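Below is how a single chain appears once it has passed through the pipeline. First comes the sequence as given, then the structure the pipeline wrote out for it. We keep one example in the README because the format questions we get most often are answered faster by looking than by reading.
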Amino acid sequence: MKRLIIIVLSILILSPSFGSLFVYASFKINQKEIAKTICVQRKLAFNNCNGRCELQKSIKKYSDNERKMQDSLKEKAELVYVQNTIEVDLNIVPSIESKENTFTFFEKKPISASNLTFHPPV
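Resulting structure:
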């Protein structure tokens, strides 16, 4: 199932780069019909075009669409968003120092230690 999803996503990602190949392949598949019905030179006795004029039109149309899409992407990419920040004025507050001593000094050695906190490594 993963392989199928990977293959499908890969094809979808690579399909825009093979656009002109798809146009050419569809032309080759329908070349005889295009030469008989759509081609400008179909009424000439010695028709050497074989529908290539329509292929050129299709490729030009595809490349124009690609160019339009790229231009629209460039326009979207050139937008710049600016956010105004609020200036915050921080006043320096003088620190209050206490005069009394908050530390406790032991003159004697401790009697015991907690076994829950201090234990040998396992």
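The first helix runs from residue 2 to 14.

See the next section for the split statistics.
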